[in-house]
Design a protein that fits this description.
This protein has 15 helices and twelve strands. The longest helix is centred in the first third of the chain and has 27 residues. Helix 1 packs across helix 7 and helix 3 runs parallel beside helix 7. A five-stranded parallel sheet has the order 2-1-3-4-5, sandwiched between helices. The protein has 331 residues and is an alpha/beta fold. Helix 5 links the parallel strand 3 and strand 4.
Length: 331
């Protein structure tokens, strides 16, 4: 095992980083030029082929191309195109049975001669399973066998020895992301669709609606107009949202009494007051369809801790607190 001591010089390290990014950027520029020219037709065919199948997209590749393939499969799956990765070696030992004639295979190989791909390529030909190749090997075995070839430009690797896949894998990733996004747009895939496949994490939280997290029914702190302040304070304390909504005779929200309103009126005799004397009229509200991120923005903008959720007639249907949003990861 070779392990040498590092000789770090800050300026040299940064120069290497900048050179790497510049070389990889040139690869993307070359790919962009290719898409504007000869690559446009096979790219369109690949999108149509994937869009027409009844099954899944099977991604395969070995080495660094395999790692790219796993990421691509995840991107496809989360953006409305069912997909999974099949390792070509495992395919040769039984996993070919995971692939059906309703599927399409995307095989990734920079040179197009990876021996490990032979079994899955032969299987695709035997059972007439559509095969898309992502390769830079124009006359390679993989390119000859494929129904559609996404031919990548041969550009310089960022590795000073020209060995470690860098620019090449970046182009593989970019063309695959382009496929996924083209399919996403063609299908009319929405942010709500994305949330269906991605309920977890910050992305899922940012796409949650107020209706997903709001408190409903008797959990909403509400009192009618004319309620005495002692009674309103009791309701506020029991519900622990830091506020209580005030309803008019028609059951619509007409005001709100908050901790802040009470603090501002401590110099008055609250026992002699009603909510009508203290409440903030026409308070800020949200709809059930408001995104959680939108609710958080409203809370922050107006420096408040809770929002009552109302319907089109301003009848309360829920309440959402700052802590509810923090709990699901919205900040």
């Amino acid at each position: 095992m070779i392990k040498r001591a590092l000789k770090l010089v800050e300026s040299s390290v940064v120069e290497t980083a900048m050179r790497t990014i510049e070389i990889e950027k040139q690869g993307l520029i070359a790919l962009e030029r290719a898409l504007a020219n000869g690559l446009s037709e096979p790219f369109t065919k690949a999108v149509e082929m994937i869009g027409d199948i009844a099954g899944r997209v099977i991604i395969t590749g070995v080495g660094k191309s395999g790692h790219i393939g796993m990421k691509i499969a995840a991107t496809f799956a989360s953006t409305g195109t069912p997909a999974f990765f099949v390792h070509p070696v495992e395919a040769n030992h039984g996993d070919l049975g995971m692939i059906t004639q309703d599927d399409v295979i995307i095989a990734i190989s920079w040179g197009g001669e990876s021996a490990e791909l032979r079994g899955i390529v032969a299987y695709s030909r035997r059972f007439a399973i559509p095969l898309i190749a992502i390769t830079a090997g124009e006359k390679s075995t993989l390119a000859r066998e494929a129904d559609v070839v996404l031919l990548l430009p041969k550009e310089q690797e960022a590795c000073p020895h020209g060995l470690a896949p860098t620019t090449s894998t970046l182009m593989q990733l970019a063309i695959s992301d382009a496929l996924a996004m083209a399919l996403l747009e063609a299908r009319g895939f929405t942010a709500e669709d994305f949330r269906t496949f991605h309920p977890g994490g910050k992305l899922g939280a940012s796409l949650s609606h107020v209706s997903d997290i709001m408190h409903k029914g008797d959990r909403i702190p509400l009192v009618p107009l004319g309620t005495s302040m002692p009674e309103a304070v009791s309701t506020l304390a029991q519900m622990r949202f830091g506020c209580v909504g005030v309803l008019d005779d028609g059951g619509c929200l007409c005001g709100i009494v908050t901790d802040g309103d009470i603090a501002r009126n401590l110099g008055r005799n609250l026992s002699e007051l009603s909510v009508d004397d203290v409440m903030t009229r026409n308070p800020k509200t949200v709809k059930e369809t408001t995104l959680a991120t939108g609710a958080m923005a409203l809370l922050n903008r107006h420096n408040i801790s809770a929002l009552i959720v109302t319907d089109a007639e301003r009848r309360p249907v829920g309440i959402v607190h700052f802590h509810d949003l923090l709990r699901i990861g919205v900040a």
